[in-house]
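hey so u asked for the seq, here:
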Amino acid sequence: MLGFIEWIVVGGIAGWLAGQIVDGAGFGVMLNIILGIVGAALAGFILQKLNFHLVESAFLAELINGVIGGVIILVLLSLIRRA
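ran it, structure tokens below
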């Protein structure tokens, strides 16, 4: 249960930070949380395949992965919305 709550917290923070970095591309609190969770999974998968480790702290690594993935997803969704 703690792992699920941690995913929600990390996803929420990562989604919010990604929304702040990509100005004007936020989709609301709930969607940003989902975006952060998906972004963390996406960036974690990609960075693991590249054998790239940012930090030793699991929480901090998940947060950084979530922000990176969230920014990527926000930029892609913003481009799709404009088209």
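Helices lie at 2-21, 29-49, 58-82. Residues 11 and 36 are 4 Å apart (CA to CA).
lmk if thats what u needed
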